[in-house]
Amino acid sequence: MGRKLLFDKAHIENIRYYDVYRANGGYGSAEKALKSMTPDQVLDEVKKSGLRGRGGAGFPTGMKWSFIAKPEGVPRYLVCNADESEPGTFKDRYLMEFIPHLLIEGLLISSYTLGANTCYIYIRGEYAWIPDILEEAIADAKKNGWLGKNIMGSGFDLEIYVQRGAGAYICGEETALIESLEGKRGNPRIKPPFPAVKGLYDCPTVVNNVETLATVVPILRIGGEEYAKYGTGKSTGTKLISACGNINKPGVYEIEMNISVEEFIYSDEYCGGIANGKRLKACIPGGSSVPILPANLLLKTAKGEPRMMTYESLADGGFATGTMLGSGGFIVLDEDQCIVKNTLTFARFYHHESCGQCSPCREGTGWMERVLKNIENGKGKMSDIDLLWDIQRKIEGNTICPLGDAAAWPVAAAIRHFRDEFEWHVLHPEEAQKRNFGLAHYADPLEIAAPAAV
Amino acid sequence: MAEEQKLFKVKIDGITVEVAPGTTILNAARQIGGDIVPPAMCYYSKLQGSGGKCRTCLVKVSKGSEADPRPMPKLVASCRTTVMDGMEVANITSPEVLEARKGVVEFLLLNHPLDCPVCDQAGECHLQDLGYEHGAEATRYEFKRRTFDKVDLGDKIQLHMTRCILCYRCVFTADQVAGNREHGVLGRGEHAEISTYLSKNLSSPFIGNVIDVCPVGALTDKTFRFKNRVWFLKPVNAHRDCDNPKCCGKTVLWMRGDEVFRVTARKDKYGEVEDFICDTCRFDKKEAKDWVIEGPRKIERQSVISANHYVGVNKPKDTLVEVLDGRQPKLLMDIHSISQVNRPNIDLSQIEGPAHSDDFNK
Amino acid sequence: MFSEEKLNKVKEIIARYPQGRQKSALIPVLHLAQGEFGGWLSTETMDYVASLLQIKPIEVYEVATFYSMFNLQPVGKHVFEVCQTGPCMLRGSDNIIDYIKKKLDIGVGETTKDGLFTLKAVECLGACGYAPMMQLGKHYKEHLTPEKVDAIIEECRANAN
Predict the structure, then answer these.
(1) What's the complex ipTM?
(2) Cβ of C126 and A93 within 8 Å?
(3) Global confidence as pTM
(4) Domains of chain C
(5) Chain B residues in contact with C62 (beta carbon < 8 A)
(6) Which of C 37-76 lie inside 8 A of B, CB atoms?
(7) SUPFAM superfamilies under this entry (chain C) (predicted)?
(8) Domains located in chain A, CATH noted
(9) Would you state the torsion angle of the CA atoms of residues A433, A434, A435, A436, taken in this order, to the nearest 10 degrees?
């Protein structure tokens, strides 16, 4: 069994309620921080832990916190990003539903560290039943003296509020989230200024993912240095992976970042292998926006080394032969799945979720969807594949926020690694309506699947 | 006495300029002027918060600053990125920038109707200029274009949403210049549109300025619609003593003969108005006698308006006599009555239809 | 018009934000209003919300049209929002949508004649591990099969009577 830090007590019945959580050592980290540590000491522990943002970008959390501006007399805010919307990702939902106090405790320690007296949890609107769970947990924490004025006699005050979104993927982008929290359209802001200087209500603000903030609790419990001993290299600690697609055991798993991708997919402790005795064709290991990899490149890097479930190993080879750990939305495709159709659903998703503010994303995402739809429906031309490549290239890096990149990457990677499947769709339009391209050579030993130069 | 502000040195396409801290790359480039100024479709220096959306002004920062010389990883919107001391920027000298800009132009034109022949903005349209200077000759888009119905925003302003490029300038104008904003951007993504939601009339006394800030023909002046082509009109500077204390009363009249076809604010060479004007000046003062005319207005944009401009044109001297050593050129005589060049006995006015060489060989 | 109780709820929501930032309450109050006034937001409802929060009506329209959870047209009593994005597609969401279409004799985006059901195909709802799935009101219905869909429809019909 892999070591657990977040889910170590998840199996305990009723752990979602305050009494059970507290009886099992809950709020111990908060107590330690408030009673025996200064905010700077907590920050030091977080820095030492090597914790990286769990929302997708993987930015070092300690560093992000140290950027927050501290002008005299201006309030600071902590905003918890619970707008989990990246297709394939559903880990934060699990955490909030089943161990809400872990998040509340994390928010308390983080707010204390940042000197924020108000904290908002911005949760996606579709998770309509979770605010009730969180609000109940907040009320219980408050009743027991963990929120409100002068918490545990430390002189520190904190209020936590839950804010529901209303259906917009883009609000997972931190500045769009802030706009939405201010009661506006979720249009991302143009950076700089960054939220650490000018965020919510123009005040210094830190926006962190649910998992990131919850992880602060075990870090304080065992200490930053001890935490850093978990995992591999710069991928310290554990990571929640939400596994889905054609596997035997979809669900949320906490992994220590030292296991291989192969172990994660095939061991009974995690995904339990490919469903229905099928073979693995491809995988998107970090949420829909990260590059898709064919089976052979997924299990081994281009250098022939086993690929590990770490930030570095998954990114090994750059976009040519690698991908990203992203948000940990692990989507597995079996041999019966069509890459073109899968890519089309993601293109449709990003088209649907584009805020429409900047032109490359507003116009380009819809264009890609339409071209892909043609190819999928047997109306594609060979030149469409190059056209798609060119459209994604002109979106990537040229937009206000990363949604443009998120829309471009899946299309680019699908063409990069599965170009012959696209070509087959174009050349055999009628056959492609009846059957799928199948596994083809995508699981063959590596030398065959050298990256196509497109 | 305040200390003298230290200026930042910034190099754009190899040309160095010194600007005050806080200046954007775009404005630094405008201080240099000429070809190296990035095009801007959404940025408007008089509107707070504008810019960053259209992505036409993307540039490459090849050196961040003297202190931190690392280049910026992505192209940046020059209208919203401030300069640092020692920054080096590539605009037209960067193939990457030109390629990206070409892409942006294609995106902007993807759903644009290209109805320039019937569009009032033609001849002073920034998207026309942009397409001409930075775009490709054809689109690769093979799908149905997005269309919207035309909407009247009151009896003076027409909204032609199909042409809109969502620069948000009119929204900022309504907020910051007109006050009492009644329209905004509704819908999301590709379906985003400028609208009042309820087809309301816009009613602020300064709302007409949305027409001037619109870079395309999405918002046009209904009192001028289809009356004339801008390049057939003569723009003149004029002013009047406007009662509205917020209105500068300084305008451009677009005239033909003595007739005033339309009134606009005065725009600089980047197409930005110098001072906003009120709707009374814009819509209700359509006679030359309402105005004190100062003289011809130079339109500095590279449009056809400037192509046949009369400013600076010298009246031709009657030089022919000099050139011909005093000989009177016969060509200038009434060619329809007598042709001495050909056969004096042939009366051209008697020939039916166009004259032919055969007519002179009879 | 909100009841006394709901008005208190609005006040409570506004109190979460600093003075003068009551616009932050817009999305929560719109949720409240949509739940209260027939499952959709009419112009009157939005104007009412604007007056409650002392903001301009256009600011409400801008927001209401941006977020996909706000209905600007009346919808059926039960809205089936079936996810169709990648992970759900891999597990057969297309078949579920087809099954519901046939069963209720409506297309995607349509409402049954009795006004009971509306079918929507939506994008990722964050339940990829429990696919195929749909949102029904406040809750998720996961691991859908035709039999499960039948049971859900029956349950909705029973509740309607």
Answers:
(1) 0.94
(2) yes
(3) 0.90
(4) 4-66 (1.10.10.1590), 78-159 (3.40.30.10)
(5) 184-186
(6) 43, 56-59, 61-62, 65-68
(7) Thioredoxin-like
(8) 18-228 (3.40.50.11540), 231-334 (3.10.20.600), 339-434 (1.20.1440.230)
(9) 10
